Amino acid sequence: MNKGKPFKLPKGSRGRAKNCISIASEHVEKALQYSYRDQRNKKK
């Protein structure tokens, strides 16, 4: 992930997940995985 993206995506996150690059990138990665999974489940 590039440096700008993890700071745009976790806007509503709590704590360091929104302003610390290493934690934010992990948080965003996991959030995108959940999002993809739940979109698939919603279509079933």
From TrEMBL:
Domain of life (superkingdom): Eukaryota
Record-linked SUPFAM superfamilies: Ribosomal protein L20 (SSF74731)
Pfam short name (any one): Ribosomal_L20
Database matches in Gene3D superfamilies: 6.10.160.10
Swiss-Prot/TrEMBL keywords: Ribonucleoprotein, Ribosomal protein
GO terms under biological process: translation
Keyword Membrane: no
GO cellular component: ribonucleoprotein complex; ribosome
Molecular-function GO terms, alphabetical: rRNA binding; structural constituent of ribosome
Family: Belongs to the bacterial ribosomal protein bL20 family.
Protein name per UniProt: Large ribosomal subunit protein bL20c
Organism: Aegilops tauschii subsp. strangulata
